[in-house]
Design brief:
Layout lengths: L1 E5 L5 H9 L3 E5 L2 H9 L5 E8 L3 E2 L1 H9 L3 E9 L3 E4 L10 E4 L1 H6 L1 H6 L3 E4 L3 H9 L6 E5 L1 H6 L3 E5 L8 E8 L9 E8 L6 H11 L4 E8 L7 E8 L4 H9 L5 E8 L6
Parallel strand pairs: 1-2, 1-3, 7-8, 7-9
Antiparallel strand pairs: 3-4, 3-11, 5-11, 6-9, 6-10, 12-14, 12-15, 13-14
């Protein structure tokens, strides 16, 4: 089975992919590329980030989930442990510039500020390690995973440099085919509510009336329809979920089930 993920080998999406499923891991250069590769049957399943506990939602993933015909079949919470990575023999005092994905730079902003480093945005954490490997001198470092340092034979200057130790990224495993899991599970859905007073309240009240816990709600603008919104919601599945969702389907447009999947525990 071919498993596509966003980033270079050693990226956090790569780590999540290895913990979520087995197979041949295929690095791709963007979230869009993961969805495109799945569409073109170049991979069998894809791994994409959906939200970070500090920086929030990955909006691009939400947009592609709505537009695609794929299903969420698994979720995973990965503890993000950032390392400052340099060339072999380099020390913290040598470093003037630090490269990484913008979210990783934001998650390590206090370390960067306290050490007087200049942040440089790149497309990927592990990709930043590959970039500094080709540079002359020891003035550039990268922020990435311990695995990225090991795969590139680079030196870890400092570990656990993130601002907050409770730093997790939630990942989805997506597939052309849905699953029907047993045991505790979630349902992800998206809909647009009528732009009238009380419309969203009436929808959310259905969940309350049927004893359904709403685990998350996220809104995204509707393209080509200014100031109208799509609502992405995760609910905890119970015996009333299908009935409640059918009621919501009848009063919203569009309405789409994005997937039903086992509820994941937070990785320690």
């Amino acid at each position: 089975m071919k498993v596509g993920y966003f980033g270079e080998p050693g990226a956090y999406s790569n780590i999540a992919a290895m913990r979520m499923t087995s197979g041949e891991y295929i690095p791709l250069d963007s979230v869009r590329s993961v969805f495109n590769a799945l569409q073109e049957h170049e991979i069998d399943v894809g791994v994409v980030p959906i939200e970070n506990s500090i920086e929030g939602a990955v909006n691009q993933t939400y947009d592609f989930l709505f537009k695609s015909d794929f299903y969420i079949i698994k979720e995973y919470y990965l503890r993000i442990k950032h390392c400052l990575i340099g060339k072999p023999g380099s020390k913290l005092n040598d470093i003037k510039y630090v490269l990484s994905h913008p979210q990783a730079l934001a998650q390590c902003s206090e370390f960067i500020y306290n050490h007087g480093l200049k942040a440089v945005s790149e497309y990927d954490t592990a990709g930043s390690v590959k970039i500094i490997k080709t540079m002359d001198g020891n003035s550039h470092a990268a922020i990435a995973s311990e695995l990225a340092a090991r795969l590139n034979d680079m030196h870890i200057i400092a570990k656990d440099i993130e601002n907050n130790s409770s730093n997790y990224t939630r990942f989805f495993l997506i597939s052309p085919e849905p699953v029907s899991p047993e045991g505790p599970s979630k349902i992800s859905l998206v809909f647009s509510a009528p732009n009238t007073a009380g419309s969203l309240y009436s929808i959310l009240k259905i969940f309350n009336d049927y004893g359904i816990n709403m685990a998350k709600i996220e809104s995204r603008p509707v393209q080509f329809n200014p100031f109208n919104y799509l609502f992405f919601i995760d609910i905890e599945r119970n015996e009333n979920a299908e009935t409640a969702l059918e009621m919501i389907r009848n009063i919203t447009n569009p309405f789409k089930i994005l997937g039903i999947y086992r509820t994941a525990l937070i990785d320690e």
